[in-house]
Amino acid sequence: MISITRACKVIRLPKSMFYYQSVKDDTEVIKKLLEMVALRPREGQDKIYQRLRLEGYGWNKKRVRRIYLKLGLNLRRKTKKRIPARVKEPLVQVEQPNQTWSMDFMSDALENGRRFRVLNVIDDFNRKAVTIEAEFAFPSFGVIQSLKRAFEEQGKPSKIRVDNGPEFTSLEFSEWCRVQEIELYYIQPGKPMQNGYIERFNRTFRQDVLDAHLFSGIDQVRHIAEQWMDDYNYSRPHEALGGITPHQTEAKFSSKQACLDEKTSYSKQNEVHLNPV
Predict the structure, then answer these.
(1) % of the chain residues with pLDDT over 90
(2) Structural domain of residue 32, as residue ranges?
């Protein structure tokens, strides 16, 4: 057993330094910092220090910073995001394609445990799957790009129904929809069945795809989702559509609309013949 005196000599440490105990008392600084952070959680160290100086405290900046970091106050503090009041709107059956789309996210994991997200978009008129896209990250910019690609193939909807997720409530997404003249309808928080069409679609997609396969990579997810979407749109009968497919429902509507347009055109021609200028 070596003595403290000999150990200090070996490492060339003054014995007085070994026995030294700090006499600093940071209790008052800690109390004040915690008080200020509780009142203003979004302000950082520099702003807090400026407030301390204005209030007459003489603590230097290095001391304030040391205690600020020691308390872990530099870590990001979550604040509750205020969501505007949402008005409940009945889930009605729309009368034509591209009148209202419904959109929602799903999540799952690959075989290695890495999480991914799937964006599902359907047309409320015939429950057609407009797009299914899988990515590891899906910010609002990614949602916009997915919709742009969907617009090129399907046309643009008049309205889109979504939940209150951050991708849909972001300023970037809402401003883009405003420019595109698309009305955004947000369901009430905690009321997923107000977006019942996409919720029903999500359940089928999870049963047939996400729960039925063990994915080795994101490309495999995309490939299987694309095959499933083709089958869903063109081959799978839908009870709510009278036992026919979304594609057949759309074709039926187009045929009916063409007949109405032809009758309207014929009526106008007869009016011109009967009432010549």
Answers:
(1) 58
(2) 22-77
Our count of domains for the chain comes to: 2
Strands 115-123, 128-135: pairing is antiparallel
**Are 148 and 226 found together in one domain?**
yes
Compute the residue count for the chain.
277
Residue 36: count other Cβ atoms within 10 Å of its Cβ. 18
pTM above 0.85, yes or no: no
CATH number for the domain spanning 104: value is 3.30.420.10
User: Is there a domain that residue 217 lies in?
Assistant: yes
Closest CA to 213 of 111, 116, 73: 111
Please report the DSSP string for 202-260 in residue order. HHHHIIIIITT---SSHHHHHHHHHHHHHHHHHT--BGGGTSB-HHHHHHHHHHHHHHH
Do residues 72 and 159 share a domain?
no
Q: How do residues 216-236 score in pLDDT, each as one tens digit?
A: 999 999 999 999 999 999 999
What angle separates helix 27-39 from helix 61-70, to the nearest 10 degrees? 70
Predicted confidence (pLDDT) per residue in 18-57, tens digit: 888 776 788 899 999 999 888 888 788 899 999 999 999 9
For 84, which DSSP code?
P
DSSP 90: -
DSSP-derived pairing of the beta strands 115-123 and 100-109 = antiparallel
* DSSP H or E segment with residue 12: none
